[in-house]
Amino acid sequence: MLTNLQSLNFCELRYSQIRLIHLLKQCLELFFSTFCEQSQLTCSRQSTSHSALTRQRFKIRRSRLLEDAFDQLSLLSEEDLKGPIRVSFINEHGEEEVGIDGGGIFKDFMENITRAAFDVQYGLFKETADHLLYPNPGSGLVHELHLQYFHFLGSLLGKAMYEGILVDLPFATFFLSKLKQKYNFLNDLPSLDPELYRHLLFLKHYNGDISELELYFVIVNNEYGEQCEEELLPGGRHMRVTNDNVITFIHLVANHRLNYQIRAQSTHFLRGFQQLIPKDWIDMFNEHEIQVLISGSLESLDIDDLRSNTNYSAGYHPDHELIEMFWEVLKSLSSDNQKKFLKFVTGCSRGPLLGFQYLEPKFCIQRAGVPGLEEHADRLPTSATCMNLLKLPPYKSKEQMQTKLLYAINSEAGFDLS
């Protein structure tokens, strides 16, 4: 019995070692492939910047952010898209906002335009039950130029990845497959419509006479209150679903929802995306890894890594008493609040895949207010996401700092919060 137990323990240990080796191999492959892509993108950016004689400059009204950007940037060639783009904002009074775009204003522009364009209220994208984004099949009912907009949004996402700008856009897996030009199947349906998936599985395992259910090879689309029936096969309205053809019916329904309905939107989005990100680059990654490249790491916030890659200004330094207090407060926050903090200061709730040394520009903590003025110690912290900057007042206690910080990061305010 002891021999059997020793043999069992050895097998368990051996199995654990094999699993660990496999996991390490996956991590190394991801790191290497990501490093390769980062290197290729960097070389491409450097090559483009050397060849670009002039920078593209655009004036964008904040009140018509998406429309102005579409009208101007969608006319750019592939070479121009890869080159430096500089933006100046026009405020509600028609005046150009003060500021020199050294990259920070463009990052602010990218954060704001992606937030506006991919908002489900705008009508180009919809959300799954898990709040993951995918193209709205009925986008043509909302926007006459919807396909041109999808091409534009594809190039925007490509530009963000090309420049290493993280954007908080959680995409549905079946849509990310389209960036790899892959076909979706029945097993992908739960991520879009789990209820429909359950109904189709019910049909697959139904023991009775399926023809009695009075189903036909049609599917009903309901977009903005308008119902229309589409045939899954020519003559589908007159083709009853039976035990003999039910498997064909199930796969046709899944194909319609996952591929056919969004085929035009996905095709135009992909064309725009590939203006900056070639297919052979994106093919190095699976869908999960692509999402990480778009929005950053899914891991918990690495406070120590962030701290070792932080700059300080206006009187603060790494050993300042208040800075020591700040890092203690940040470590004490819940994982959700740490993500909210990161979004508050950088515009994205996730850190860069390879660590904060790749955050551009580096996170900076700046003393807020004028030294010696007591009233500044009662203000809330503010941020400038375009510069990854936290403006931190000189609070008198850890409790006060935590209260003010939690209020600020949960208020979804920013530059002028006080």
Explain this structure.
By secondary structure, the chain is an alpha/beta fold. It has 4 domains: about 1-50; about 55-185 and about 265-295, Hect, E3 ligase catalytic domains (Hect, E3 ligase catalytic domain fold), CATH 3.90.1750.10; about 185-255, Hect, E3 ligase catalytic domain, CATH 3.30.2160; about 305-410, Hect, E3 ligase catalytic fold. Helix content is about 50%, strand content about 10%. The chain has 16 helices and 10 strands. The termini are far apart.
User: What kind of sheet is the major sheet?
Assistant: 4 strands, mixed
Number of structural domains: 4
Arithmetic mean of pLDDT: 82
SS element count, helices: 16
CATH-level-2 architecture of the largest domain? Alpha-Beta Complex
Q: Low-confidence runs (pLDDT<50, min 5 residues)?
A: 1-25, 49-53, 413-418
Provide the spatial order of strands within the biggest beta sheet.
Answer: 7-8-10-9
User: CATH superfamily of the largest domain, called what?
Assistant: Hect, E3 ligase catalytic domains
Helix content: 40-55%
| CATH topology-level name of the largest domain | Hect, E3 ligase catalytic domain fold
Hey, roughly how much beta strand do the residues contain?
5-15%
CATH class of the largest domain: Alpha Beta
What class do helices, strands and sheet pairing give? alpha/beta
H-E order: HEHHEHEEHHHHEEHHHHHEHHEEEH
Shape: elongated
The CA-CA distance between the termini, in Å, is 71 Å
* Count of DSSP strands: 10
InterPro entries: E3A/B/C-like (IPR044611), HECT_dom (IPR000569), Hect_E3_ubiquitin_ligase (IPR035983)
Keywords: Transferase, Ubl conjugation pathway
Organism: Zea mays
Catalytic activity: S-ubiquitinyl-[E2 ubiquitin-conjugating enzyme]-L-cysteine + [acceptor protein]-L-lysine = [E2 ubiquitin-conjugating enzyme]-L-cysteine + N(6)-ubiquitinyl-[acceptor protein]-L-lysine
